[in-house]
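YM 10:42: 23S rRNA (Adenine(2030)-N(6))-methyltransferase RlmJ sequence, as discussed on the call
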Amino acid sequence: MSYKHFGRIGDIWKHIPLCQFLAIEKPASYIETNSAYPEYQLTGSLEQEYGILHIEKNIQKSQLIQASVYWKVLNSISENDHGISKYLGSPALALNILRASTEKFVFFDIEEPCLTSIAEYASKLNLTSQIFYKNEDSVEGLLNMIEELSIEDFIHVDPYLIHEKNPHGNSYFDAFIKAMRKGVKGMLWYGFNTSKERNALHQGFQGLTNTSSRSLQGIEIMSILLDENISDVNPGVWGCGILIGNLSDVSSKYFKQIVLEVIKIYQGSTIFNKYSGELKFEDFQIQI
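YM 10:58: structure's back
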């Protein structure tokens, strides 16, 4: 399996908000650009100890996370009856939350085994007829779909490098912005490991030419040690952000609430028992 990031801190500040957004918004269609696999067996790695296993050990500290759709879905798996041992990727989380209420699912990935695995997982849930698989460049694939999408649809864009241009000169951020300007519901996740990388991301945000009255809401979480340039440990990612657009006021309010709970649950934590694992956050708006 090529994907190794499951259950790490980046998944925490991705899947908790995503699951709640999907449950609230109930989209007619769900499109995911970088799907990877639907489920993973946890290995108990140090990165997972700081990620999902830290959440599990400290879940009593946050009633909001404990009551979240994310936590309920993870705990509904029979393999997790005696503790979290299996982790679900975003395709499986979306399929479990939306099920037959969503008319169409579209999963992109450049690795065909990922899509095959999603198809096998979907069949277990008796969800096959409304699922479409795209083994192709998801930037171009998403751009080609936008005209047919509506305000009832939800896109989940999850590439890590959001400003990197493909051979056609387009980026994930370009595709996301085009969809947001059309009124499509959406969430974009990205990562960074240094303040320099974070600043470069924000320069890309500021380079937008405002052509609509819409805006994006952004919240980033990051290690309090982001500026320390620590190189002997790596929790998976030192910081990551989410941009959302065209979601309901209920989702927007939850977004602001849940980041405080994530920050709280990491108070007093450590990274690999060596450095402080505490987090901080920044929120912002982007006019598009």
